[in-house]
Amino acid sequence: MGVAPGCGGVGLAPGGLAQRSALPRVARGRGRGGRRREVPHEALERGDHGRRLLGGGRRSDNLELRAPVHHGVQRLSWLAVPDVPVLDHDAVLEAVKPAAAIERVGEAFVAHHLGDWVMPAKVYLPSPGWGDFRAMPARGGGLALLKWITSFPHNPERGLPTVTGVVCLSDAETGEPLMLLDARSVTALRTGAVAAVAARALAREEAERCGIIGCGLHGAWTARSLAAAGYADGICHDPDAGAAERLAAELGWRAGTLPQALACDVVSCVTPGRAVVVEAGDLRPGLHLNMLGADGPGKAEATPAAVASCALFCDEWAQASHGGELTGAIESGLVTREDVTDLGAVLAGGAPGRPGPDAVTLFDSTGLAIQDLAVAAAAHAAWRDGAVEAQTVRL
Amino acid sequence: MGVAPGCGGVGLAPGGLAQRSALPRVARGRGRGGRRREVPHEALERGDHGRRLLGGGRRSDNLELRAPVHHGVQRLSWLAVPDVPVLDHDAVLEAVKPAAAIERVGEAFVAHHLGDWVMPAKVYLPSPGWGDFRAMPARGGGLALLKWITSFPHNPERGLPTVTGVVCLSDAETGEPLMLLDARSVTALRTGAVAAVAARALAREEAERCGIIGCGLHGAWTARSLAAAGYADGICHDPDAGAAERLAAELGWRAGTLPQALACDVVSCVTPGRAVVVEAGDLRPGLHLNMLGADGPGKAEATPAAVASCALFCDEWAQASHGGELTGAIESGLVTREDVTDLGAVLAGGAPGRPGPDAVTLFDSTGLAIQDLAVAAAAHAAWRDGAVEAQTVRL
Q1: What's A78's DSSP letter?
Q2: Which residues on chain B are in Cβ contact (under 8 Å) with A216?
Q3: What is the pLDDT of residues A11-21, one digit of tens each?
Q4: Which helix (DSSP H) or strand (DSSP E) does residue B369 occupy?
């Protein structure tokens, strides 16, 4: 268990507490007065239960002295357990705007390509008949993250969001939780952001107009990110015409048909992946395609033949080849590893991007924990800098 | 992304909201008045921003109407987002006592053996030079769980706990987070509990005295669990004599030497696994050994020869064979799969346990997410039944 006998706690003589509290600790990201509450790790039946407050603390109710919890006689350990700030959906969106998400996500791809940021494979936990859970860890920049997120497609029928979950951002030196965040907002920001990162890297320089196919939650954030990246004109398409019209009105773009959307310079598909929307005949010289909808086995928005006709890029090969847009073309034998370039390699300058102005480029996005880490780190920094308020919980 | 165009939100006509709110939803585990706050999934610039409160709610401040967050014109979705209860370290320990943890953990092993509870492999995320993170998912009993937990052995030098983290308990039908819990307390309870479960299943019926080797956090909880299971006499040993004495005093047991602890009927080793404490010569007929300290590659508390001399049991083969007490003996060629019985099979009646009164039984515990799920579910039930108070956060 990693517990060293005798190191789980320290027996203190009176006065010993004063010395321990004085130990310096780098306040990593704790610019708010270092709210840290000292609590007895195990209660001591005898001796002094007095406690000291570290730092001023903005939420005095969380720092009030509480009676020690008696589990019987055990050593007294003044192991500091901090309050954890929590950002809900709206606070995340207030803390991190699309432009910031684009920048941070791009940096994360480079850092991952260089090996500085690391990411084990995401773990799927199905709930048969209902949906699935995904556990997504990553480490980088002195932080670590775990995003626990869902896809439960029947939920809207019950008035619930398809995607829910929680993100824990942790300190990579101590392992301590630093912040909890709503996962839906983090996911929406980073999904939209990568579409803009890929478009900037791979679309033609003259590209101006965006086509958005699928105007649900993530399609909307894709459109907002592309608008934030400077694409001033676009066509929004959705089988729900109202959804397309509302998104278009928000951005000053237009609603249109599927062919109209496909005729744009940068086309982003953000559909559930249950039906193909791009066929080989839809491809035009100079097109850049962002394929964001297929994020698990069995989903596809383009035919294998269409995929195989493009200059191919992906966020991460293992994910894209097993549960992304590329999977069908790979299984058909039309595409191999050598045909696909990692976006991070392009951004880091280690691999070429668009082959030429007439090429059709396709970026397969399956969603990486490093993207979530980028956005969560940005949100934490914004809170630390006072840009947004957080709730607080004790763990 | 699992988003169906048009299903991420619903355009509502006036009066439409009343109908949507009336949709029945089974209040799974929400016996506290179904605190559910309806928030705009995307803000609508035009139309009615009025909101309805569902349920009474005990924390009215969290249910006060807030101004919608404007992300521009987008459809209005009254997707209900509930407040999430949070149990801190002390609340978990108040909610779940060792006796209850023993019962629930035993049931979880049976359910897992029967295939009703499922558990993907835990994921390790190292933080080189500091420690490691573990992401542990599981599903069962209508619930799902993700425990994000750490082992950072240098932390006590900084006045911090070695083990920290957070647990998210979720609804397996909707994916929604149901509760957040402190991970340290859940882990301590389930680690101690499995020692008692294994002792009850594998030790001799006449076994009376417990030896506890390693009196840190998890050693203490192991001892408490065994005491709760009815073992009235024990010897506590730790290189830190004070730690052993305090634990012994708490339980009415005695502190003693390593040989004295090893001479007991049920011996539980709960050390960091950096040094062997059990050798072949320490084994006596009728002994039952719980090996709880080795929970990752490179750790061992017994020699391979000692391990190979025992009737062997494990919590889960993949974990035990790659990062548990059995690993060294397997790598030495002394032990194979056929030599090891799953504890869940014994508890379910599908495999024999102790071969006879003179056998030496060894149970290798590496720590399973299903154990965490068992304890977290028990804590949630206790909260739902009003046995403990929870904090609340919005996601």
Answers
A1: E
A2: 1, 3-9
A3: 334 443 333 33
A4: helix B369-384
Q: Are A210 and A116 in contact (CB under 8 A)?
A: no
Longest dimension (CA), chain B: 81
**B220: nearest CB among A74, A138, A191:** A74
CA of B269: which chain A residue's CA is closest? A1
A71 and B88 within 8 Å at the Cβ level: the answer is: no
Q: Tell me what ipTM this predicted complex has.
A: 0.82
Interface check for B62 against chain A (CB to CB < 8 A): the answer is no
The Cα–Cα gap between A230 and A206 comes to 12
Residue B197's closest CA among B105, B285, B265, B309?
Answer: B105
Predicted pLDDT at B294: 80
Beta-carbon contacts of A257 under 8 Å, excluding residues fewer than 6 positions away, are: A237
Taking CA–CA distances from A300, the nearest residue in chain B reads B1
In angstroms, what CA-CA distances link A181 with A165, A169, A177, A295, B71? Answer: 9, 8, 11, 22, 19
B273: confidence class by pLDDT, cuts 50, 70, 90? confident
Cβ-Cβ contacts under 8 Å for A92 (sequence gap 6 or more) = A181, A182, A185, A186, A189, A375, A379
Q: What's the rounded mean pLDDT across residues B70-94? A: 70
Mean pLDDT of A201-206: 97
Look at residue B362 and give its three-state secondary structure. strand
CB-nearest partner of A160 from B80, B125, B184: B80
On average, the pLDDT of chain B sits at: 84
Position A7 pLDDT exceeds 70: no
- Name the residue of chain A whose CA is nearest to B153's CA: A2
Structure tokens at B366: 């590496």
A49, pLDDT greater than 90: no
pLDDT category at A37 given cuts 50, 70, 90 is low
- Using the 8-state DSSP alphabet, how is residue B348 labeled? T
> CB distance A123–B120 less than 8 Å?
yes
pLDDT band at A230 (very low <50, low <70, confident <90, very high): very high
SS3 call for A54: strand
pLDDT-derived band of residue B36, with 50, 70 and 90 as boundaries?
low
Could you say which of B97, B122, B147, B299 is catalytic? B147
Which of A55-59, A128-132, B283-287 bottoms out in mean pLDDT, i.e. has the lowest?
Answer: A55-59
Strands B391-394 and B78-87 come out as antiparallel
Q: Does A71 touch chain B (CB under 8 A)?
A: yes
CA distance B22 to B109: 40
CB A380 within 8 A of CB A373: no
What are the residues facing A265 on neighbouring strands? none
> What residues contact residue B256 under an 8 Å CB cut-off, 6+ apart?
B235, B236, B237, B244
Quick one: how many helices (H) and strands (E) in chain A?
13, 17
Write the pLDDT tens digit of every residue in B165-219. Answer: 999 999 999 999 999 999 999 999 999 999 999 999 999 999 999 999 999 999 9
B174 touches chain A (CB under 8 A): yes
CA atoms of B39 and B395, how far apart (whole Å): 11
